[in-house]
TrEMBL record:
A Pfam family of this chain: OsmC
Protein name, UniProt field: OsmC family protein
GO molecular function: peroxidase activity
Originating species: Amycolatopsis halotolerans
Keywords from the named record: Oxidoreductase, Peroxidase
Amino acid sequence: MSLTDVIDGTRQAARTDRHNAAVSFSVDHALAANTATVVDVRVRDHAFTVDEPPALGGTDQAANPVEYALASLGSCQVITYQFWAARLGIPLNAVRVKVDGDLDLHGFFGFDESTRPGFSDVRVSVELDGPAAPEVYEQLRRAVDEHCPVLDLFRNQTPVTTTVR
């Protein structure tokens, strides 16, 4: 199934009933046995590991949570470029995204309560390859920036509710 088929099918389903466009995602996490920082993650039928580098007390078995956050942003950008290029009919041969983020550990460790524990700056660098004029790819960038779900998470406050049982 092509991306345009997915877009058209979703558009039709959402026109029929707006609730057809509402989706929920769920991810389960558990500390791996006999570890202090290794987390086993389950997403549908997929599994992966999260850890910290040795400098942060981990065993470096996998990327850490903030690296996965940057990976989520970059991956979402690549996918959203593909979707919006298809939707707008813009030829796109390749998409490459690099995401860098700066984090001050004073916030995470509680050394300075005035320092936020999250990223202070995130930089997204996108390389597009295709035969269209630069202004066409600038139009595509604007569409992606307006519609990328993970970029929206980075740019806007999202309500989060935490419960402990």
